[in-house]
């Protein structure tokens, strides 16, 4: 995947050791394309990542830093129990949109569907069946 096509600047900082640490800490095996993204850029902020879901349109503002450190705006921070009030179990925020909705992996599904979580309404909406399909939705 050429992440630069989406306006993502290369900023390598995630390596196999970091991936192993995060996956062991969170007890999650991340999808290969997501790992490709975070190894290309540890905190991706795509310029071209608008996408449609549930008759709505939004855009990714930023992906959370892929780090085992439990500090704000890392995937490990969002994986803490009760980190986000009302977030269902096995839903992991990996990014946010311009309206502060959380873009998440749903680990309750076999292919780790992508969903969007509105923390105000406490509503989870389906976006894509997996991360590959999610990336294919991105446009200007």
What features would you highlight for this structure?
single chain, 140 residues, alpha+beta, SMI1/KNR4-like, six-stranded antiparallel sheet, 4 helices, 6 strands, globular
What does this structure look like?
There is one protein chain. The protein is an alpha+beta fold and 140 residues long. The chain has a single domain (3-137), classed as SMI1/KNR4-like (3-Layer(aba) Sandwich). The chain is built from 4 helices and 6 strands. The protein has helices at 16-26, 32-40, 75-78, 131-137, and strands at residues 50-53, 56-63, 91-97, 102-106, 113-118, 123-128. The protein has a 6-stranded antiparallel beta sheet. A hairpin with a 4-residue loop joins strand 5 and strand 6. The radius of gyration is 14 Å and the shape is globular. The relative contact order is 0.17. The mean pLDDT is 93. This is SMI1/KNR4 family protein. Residues 13-137 form the Knr4/Smi1-like domain. InterPro entries: Knr4/Smi1-like_dom, Knr4/Smi1-like_sf.
């Amino acid at each position: 995947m050429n992440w630069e096509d989406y306006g993502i600047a290369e900023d390598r900082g995630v390596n196999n050791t970091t991936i192993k640490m995060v996956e062991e800490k969170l007890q999650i095996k991340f999808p290969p394309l997501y790992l490709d993204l975070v190894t290309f850029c540890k905190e991706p902020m795509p310029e071209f990542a608008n996408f449609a879901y549930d008759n709505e349109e939004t855009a990714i503002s930023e992906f959370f830093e892929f780090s085992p450190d439990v500090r704000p705006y890392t995937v490990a921070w969002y994986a803490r129990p009760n980190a986000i009030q009302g977030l269902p179990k096995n839903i992991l925020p990996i990014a946010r949109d311009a309206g502060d909705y959380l873009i998440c992996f749903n680990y309750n599904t076999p292919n780790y569907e992508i969903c969007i979580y509105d923390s105000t309404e406490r509503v989870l909406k389906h976006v894509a069946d997996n991360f590959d399909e999610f990336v294919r939705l991105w446009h200007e």
